[in-house]
Amino acid sequence: MEQETAGPEARPGATGDGAPPVIGPxxxxxxxxxxxxxxxxxxxxxxxxxxxxxxxxxxxxVMLYTICYLLLKGVGIWGINIxxxxxxxxxxxxxxxxxxxxxxxxxxxxxxLHQKWRTSINRFAEAMTLFAVACAGLFPLLHMGRPWFxxxxxxxxNTMEIWPQFRSPxxxxxxxxxxxxxxxxxxxxxxxxxxxATIRDxxxxxxxxxxYGILAMGWRGSAYHWKRYEVTYLILAGLATPLVVSVxxxxxxxxxxxxxxxxxxxxxxPYFVAGAIYSGFAMVLVLAIPLRAFYGLEDxxxxxxxxxxxxIMLATGLVVxxxxxxxxxxxxxxxxxxxxxxxxNRMFGPYGVYxxxxxxxxxxxxxxxxxxxxxxxxxxxxxxxxxVLSGMWLERYVIVITSLHRDYLPSSWGMYxxxxxxxxxxxxxxxxxxxxxxxxxxxxxxxxxAEMQTLLxxxxxxxxxxAGAAQEAH
Amino acid sequence: MPVDSEATPQxxxxxxxxxxxxxxxxxxDTPEYQEMMDREFPEQASEWTDPVTRRRxxxxxGASLALAGLNGCSTQPAPRExxxxxxxxxxxxxxxxxxxFATAMPLAGLATGVLVESxxxxxxxxxxxxSHPASLGATDLLxxxxxxxxxxxxxxxxxxxxxxxxxxxxxxxxxRSALDKLKTRQGAGLCILTENVxxxxxxxxxxxxxxxxxxxxxxxxxxxxxxxxxxLEGAKLAFDEYVNTHYNFRKAxxxxxxxxxxxxxxxxxxxxxHDYSERRRVRTKDTTPDNFKMNRLYAVxxxxxxxxGVADHRLALRPSQIEVFAQALGHKLMVREAPDAAGKLPExxxxxxxxxxxxxxxxxxxxIVLTGDGQPASVHALAHAINRTLRNVGETVLYTxxxxxxxxxxxxxxxxxxxxxAGRRVEMLVILGGNPVYTxxxxxxxxxxxxxxxxxxxxxxxxxxxxxxxxxxxxxVHYLESWGDARAYDGTASVIQPxxxxxxxxxxxxxxxxxxxxxxxxxxxxxxxxxxxxxWLQQKEKESGDFEMFWQRxxxxxxxxxxxxxxxxxxxEGWAERVAKAHRGEQGASAPRAGKFEIVFRxxxxxxxxxxxxxxxxQELPKPVTKLTWDNAALMSPKTAEELGISYVHGSSSRFxxxxxxxxxxxxxxxxxxxxxRRVKAPVWIQPGHADGAITLYLGHGRQHVGRVAEGVGFNxxxxxxxxxxxxxxxxxxxxxxxxxxxxxxxxxxxxxxERRPIRTASLEHFKSxxxxxxxxxxxxxxxxxxxxxxxxxxxxxxxxxxxxxxxPDRRLVPLTLYSEGDNEFPYNGxxxxxxxxxxxxxxCSACVVACQSExxxxxxxxxxxTRGREMHWLRIDRYFEGDPFDAxxxxxxxxxxxxxxxxxxxxxxxxxxxxxxxxxxxxxxMIYNRCVGTRYCSNNCPxxxxxxxxxxxxxxxxxxLKLMRNPDVTVRSRGVMExxxxxxxxxxxxxxxxxxxxxxxxxxxLMTACQAVCPARAIRFGDLNQDSGVKQWKDExxxxxxxxxxxxxxRTTYLAALRNPNPELETK
Lengths: 474, 1069
Hints:
A: about 475 residues, B: alpha/beta, 33 helices, 38 strands
């Protein structure tokens, strides 16, 4: 890999404002377009794709099978019980929702902050968000005792003349997650339109022409189109930005509002949001590092991207670590015997090993990101990102399970352990997620062509006028 | 079930017009029904019962109508009593409104009066009979669960000959010819084996059968595995005659229980608990503060039982040491004949003698020394002597004529029968109830010798171990379907009247004996009525009116006082010689045995002697002290366990497994028990408080032929029980089996309170000095100290506040709240329902748990689901141990029933997304099942964890007979919904309707929750806080406290702290 020999600063093709380059040298509008769209337009699907897709699709089928069995039998097939009435389903829900944070953060917040390096990762990060939210959305639905009545959680006019109970954080969840899902989808789709048009124009298959044609919604690249596109995109970015913060805040309310020691804590919203970004960026890295190697996209997803993401991970990881510290401190310092016991039990009780594993993988190991050597070594970064992903999953497991399993009355303390169906559902959603990712990579441009082109020196001619630059590309 | 499908009769029962819809289940769905029958019970929602389609429904309806017509051509015999459809509605019968009938439940021969709630002819719930002396309105857990026994689909449903169904007439002709043959030999070779009999009617019938005109040489044996022979033999040793002993706890200030668990089981337990508890309540309203008085209970026992658990002082001794203890105590109390045996006692027991003797003699005439059934006759005799010396006889200890119609030594009887059988002197054996193949002492080899009897007839509720080895098996009727009579612990007789025609056909013992006699077609009613007519005619002072009036009144009241059972004082003379003689005999028989441990047999607290093994409620009911369900285990002390190489971790007696644990799944070691060459494998349960060096085994498990529920549950302790040692013996060897583990289902494994004070307890002395000790609002004492240290004491402003300060708890300890007083509070102007539970008198007997289950259609979930922590009991009893587990005598237990708290600020309501749990205007925390979507958030947020979730389809929608049993006023919950205690809202609403009709308010008399009604200790009160109700009075007591009050949930269920009355002279050093 060339980036090891030459530092990004030394690269030609920098955006010209002194910032490190975020695209490889020697690209033109056409070569960018060809490089990215060729993945979609290629006749032959690479064998690696088939293998990856087959594995993840199989897992997705496992998920479907689990869902069928679950609907047939009831949530009792999982390991949940009284007192631990929430188990894997909620752990996975929070985990997936957290992962879903990076996409919108990258797209919206970094767009508003004029972080140009975002352009090469935002597309698939947004796709990742959508798929993660889809996986996340399954869990609260299926974890209900009677999922066929899920619509009772929506305020719709009905003959029973009854509203949902608006004081319940679960209702807030419904609004938060569905809003987030909708805005993310719109944002992603609006961003895709120019590229869909590009593919439509280049594809040779009739099927593709019609399909991409419909999806491109008649995009012709006129100045009007570009103007409206830019405005819409900015508005959506503005809308999505508060959602990045609100979704996980609301998710954390599920816990913080409850009176359970270990849940009832005001630190939860910020620390959940930080955790979400943490795991989100980890997932982007986990996806980006193999992708760029496999499709030879090192010029588009450069060292700068990896380094920046690693830095964000490091920062959010520190916030999360601070969260753990404050939680422990508050528990022990509060003088509340329940809080105190809950904290000590979390550390040294029957699930203590999970807690220390969590501290190790989520706080200790990511400290290696301080080292530039680590940040600039993609395989190493990949491993750290995987570790962080599992750490964030563990965090939710520790929060959900250890708080529930020993609460107020010692008589009803109990243990929780997942069953095979918990695992099949969890691994199934991972398969489902990757199956969707594989389809996305194959059928849609995984990097925004139009936006990448704006990074080229040529586009500077127009004094940063995106519309003009992109128009020229056509 | 062992019965092969060919042998299962196809239309299963005799058809009668009123039961046609039952056939709908059994006849039309035959293959499915069979499949369902074969499946492991309880059905754990193996399918989401799909609704009947329209076509199928029409098909079923059409066919069931056709079937109803078929009743006319039934070949089954017509019912013996007239059963007609109503042409005009009978006066008391209003559809939808229950009726109550008095009857009595016999158990091991002894009756407890009950009132049975009947909905349109279906008995659904059993309550105690307030006018019956053994009940006073309360019932125990076995009685509560007997309603499930009635509807048990595994009950035997057909008369069989070697497994094949036969008609009654066929059986009768076979019996007749056999009897005719025997009659020529005056009945020699005819043996009848019954259980313990107190029924005067059965006695009369047997007398008739055995008289000189019939079968004078026939023999009648009685065998009851839980037989109280030791009690009777003890009385015989003491008084040289059989005497029935009972006690008056109302007058007792000091009670010494020698291995007697009188608060949980045994004859008169409900009455004893009631009277004992009456003397334990300390109420500031009733008494002046310096006159607080409580009785005092000393318990000497081996395993920690309910009685010992709540006793003021508890001494753990091996059963063999208890006689020594009694002797030493007798010696101290100047009982002439008692030897000074103090030297042989452990130190802790010696320490007891002086203060105990002093306390007993100071309360002469107001004390009771009672001995458990498991102690040998000599201890009983000694206790009689001690009671006489203490002048308790006639005051607290009462003697009457024996209530058994023929008092016998049951062990001797069964041995004699086996000898007869072994000698091939038995031609025809009639077993009327009971299951001797399973319960007879193992060394007698009953089954082996039974095979030598040419004609074996078994009458039983189940085609059980005995039924399987008999030629003829006749289904027995349940006590709720038959006529009969029995006596209570004090001799009061009750007529047992049926509530429903036999569900599965069958005969009662009375009917079978009548069939053997002169008039084969006499029904149970006729037989019983005839006896009582004769009895009535004999009574000297006949009240006015005719027999019919007496009969109706007896049926209505459920109790007949029999003057034969007046108290008297038998002569106590020469007993020491008899005891000594008996001892000599014993010593000759049994030399001291090798083997380190003592083996102790006890009746299972929930399954009794095993007869209730197929009762799912009882299997799943956590055993009161161990909290084990669906299993038995070898109970031993932590020290004994260590000796065997089994580790004991304080606070949790077993390891947590990877699938659950703590609450639910416990993986324990397995030991091999060897006693007299017989081996049994048993899981180990470490029981703090158990005497060291002894191992207790519960009988009643490990059944072979019984039904789906009991199949494969537990191990059979009868396999070690011999004729010579029915209750305990030395010579037990135990060996840990390395590598073997057994999973037990235990509902509570965390034994200590973690300084949280869910149960607040103090001695009477402490209460006197600090009456508000329980009232302070924070939980932990450590926390209290911390708060008081950190927060400066506010200066009292003015005199008034100073005065007030004395009354109120320290404000610094009251948790802060966002709600200012009275601000935005719902006023609750109408009713304001609340409950208070008195922990001083609660003995943890668990009857309330079963009562709640019965009242509220609560399903059972099976062992596997219990190991997953999913049991459904709305009311649970928390049990905590106190003391050092390695010091057996200083371990005591605390019991705390926990229903829903109905918090005014309920945390569950706030988090439900669909408003499925909301507050009612009268303060109930309601659960709306059909609105619930099952997010389980409410359970997570419930600090009391009283909510129960239908993780799977737990309610059995399929079994027809169970549908009959359900309370029609309570929804049967489906899968995926949350449920919990409702304060028996159906009862509240019924009472409301009644009160509204009369334009008055509901009073305490109109309304009782199921748990309240059943409680023998009257430890639960429920009512309206807006009136001067019973519960209001309790809530005004200083002992009243709310569980986790510091969370500001403002629970409507509160507790009265537990008081104990220890002897200051015996306080721990």
